[in-house]
Design goal:
Layout: E1 2-4, H1 5-9, H2 21-32, H3 37-51, E2 57-58, E3 61-65, H4 72-79, E4 86-87, H5 89-100, E5 105-113, E6 116-123, E7 126-133, H6 138-148, H7 158-174, E8 177-178, E9 181-190, E10 193-201, E11 204-205, E12 207-214, H8 221-224, H9 249-264, E13 272-273, E14 277-281, E15 286-294, E16 300-308, H10 315-321, H11 332-347, E17 355-363, E18 368-376, E19 382-389, H12 396-400, H13 413-425, E20 429-440, E21 443-452, E22 456-465, E23 469-478, E24 488-495
Parallel strand pairs: 3-6, 7-10, 12-15, 16-18, 19-21
Antiparallel strand pairs: 1-5, 2-4, 5-6, 8-11, 9-10, 13-15, 14-15, 17-18, 20-21, 22-23, 23-24
Helix pairs in contact: 6-7
């Protein structure tokens, strides 16, 4: 029995187009007719056996030929066949397809003779490395590679390669380079290993020559564009500090929301900004950007209300902390800041899961708006455990001594932020992050993750002087000695010369 992916995909025979079916059958009968009775009986027996469905057989052994991408143990889990099992062709077909669908192989087929089951593999090549030539710095290239979805160690796949090529072109367009040409070539590094090289012929940038905001009367263009990624090019825009007007296509869909936010920071709560319309002249690489703007009226704050289901903090204390004031022009940025201030005030009392929901009650006729903060306090929360990770050199106790919260402590948001800042100030870590993990309604774990930074410094100096001759100095310093948080420094200065005597001097 021989089962392969190719056989499973092509399950039929094709007649000879040059010979009529009837004549072919007669010719076959004449050639294959037995000359005596014994031959006739043997031929009938063989024909009968070949037309029968293969019988179930017991598996005596299983082996994998040409397999290096995975262990035999993992392959056994995929095929779901064990020594001693009774299998038929259908079960073997299922096992072959399961192996092929792992994506590591060009072809997989199986042979089953005398109870010996063998799976044969033609493996895909591995990607030994990915290079981008013709564009950017190493840091920029690393950023592009992360968007391409292809990396060292992956199996080589044509579809994956095309996807990476498309992603690279899209990323270049998002950075403002249009008409870029990307060619892909492969270089054989060793048997079964390929180097993938993307040759980039970067296209030209498109510049926004004019931006039009139809319907905008209350705000100037520069104010409207203050938060936008795509802006009209300034005169001499190539100079530092001026807007170059370069089109950033990947940010264009978000600019309508940014413009709306500019209006809402200035009290125009009903402002509506259309989707952008971009007209590009590829012969000059100039573009015109067009929006339709409905500004509406400007609102002032008529009143501020705080509704809290459990007054764990006095209302007067909460009101005093707010930035939003009565009779002020409404500012959505202040509203967001105040929601965070209220959250902090409640969370500092131990209510970590408090929720603040801002709401607005507009009076369009008089241009007034009432600001309402609805607060759901929730349960008191305590720290269940503090879990530290990423400290390969620095000991746990050095980290814990900087934390203002520990197990069984009442939650405090300000202390949590100060703990994170305190770890950063140590200077031992390149990255610091404290995450909250909810255990239940009253317990929380703190997950402290750090990434060790460089804490040592080595310096050498070489000089020459008429008095001291050749001078050599060096210093070694370490700010986190053996992960204990202690500092140490050594300094040495060597001079080869003696002094110089002058007439009249002793």
């Amino acid at each position: 029995m021989n089962t392969s992916v190719e056989a499973l995909e092509n399950d039929g025979s094709k007649p000879n187009d040059l010979t009529p079916p009837k004549e072919a059958s007669q010719e076959s009968q004449r050639n294959e007719a037995p000359k005596n009775e014994v031959q006739r009986n043997e031929a009938q027996k063989e024909t009968s056996q070949s037309n029968q469905t293969p019988k179930e057989m017991k598996v005596k052994s299983i082996s994998y030929v040409g397999l290096s991408y995975m262990s035999d143990m993992l392959a056994n889990e995929i095929v779901k066949i064990r020594v001693g099992d009774i299998v038929d062709s259908k079960k073997i077909d299922t096992a072959v397809l399961a192996l092929f669908n792992q994506g590591y192989f060009k072809d997989v087929y199986a042979t089953f003779e005398g109870g010996i089951l063998e799976f044969h593999f033609d493996e895909k090549a591995r990607i030994a490395g990915v290079e981008i030539k013709g564009y950017g710095t190493e840091k920029e290239k690393d950023g592009l590679k992360s968007q391409m979805g292809i990396k060292k160690g992956d199996t080589f796949d044509e579809q994956k390669l095309e996807h990476a090529k498309t992603a690279l072109k899209t990323a270049l367009e998002g950075q403002g380079y249009y008409g870029s040409v990307v060619e892909v070539r492969t270089q054989k590094v060793s048997e079964g290993a390929l180097l993938i090289v993307f040759d980039v012929n970067r296209g030209d940038s498109i510049y926004i020559k004019q931006s039009i905001y139809e319907g905008s009367d209350k705000l100037k263009r520069r104010v409207i564009e203050s938060l936008s990624a795509n802006k009209q090019r300034d005169f001499m825009g190539w100079m530092w500090g001026l807007n170059d007007g370069k089109l950033r296509l990947d940010q264009l869909e978000y600019d309508s929301l940014r413009i709306q936010d500019v209006y809402m920071r200035r009290g125009y709560l009903d402002a509506h900004i259309s989707s952008p319309f971009l007209k590009t002249d590829f012969s000059t690489h100039d573009a015109k950007l067009h929006y339709k703007v409905k500004e509406g009226i400007q609102y002032r704050i008529s009143d501020i209300l705080i509704e809290i289901d459990n007054p764990v903090v006095p209302l007067k204390t909460l009101e005093k902390a707010l930035k939003v004031k009565r009779k002020d022009v409404f500012n959505i940025e202040h509203l967001r800041a105040d929601a965070q201030i209220l959250k902090t005030e409640i969370a500092d009392k131990g209510y970590a899961f408090a929720v603040v929901k801002p709401d607005l009650d507009k009076d369009e006729k008089n241009g007034l708006v009432k600001v309402i903060y609805r607060i759901e306090v929730g349960d008191m929360v305590y720290i269940n455990d503090v879990i530290i990770s990423g400290n390969q050199r620095t000991s746990d106790r050095i980290i814990r001594r900087e934390l203002l919260l520990g197990p069984k402590d009442k939650y405090n948001l300000t202390k949590l932020r100060n703990s994170e800042n305190s770890l950063r100030r140590l200077g031992f870590f390149s990255k610091v992050k404290i995450e909250e993990k909810r255990v239940n309604s009253s317990l929380m774990d703190l997950l402290v993750s750090v990434e060790e930074g460089r804490t040592g410094q080595l310096q050498f100096g070489l000089g020459y002087g008429s008095y001291g001759g050749l001078m050599l100095n060096g210093s070694v310093s370490e700010r986190n000695l053996f992960g204990t948080g202690q500092s140490m420094s050594l300094y040495a200065n060597i001079a080869t010369g003696g002094g110089r005597s002058y007439p009249g001097m002793p």
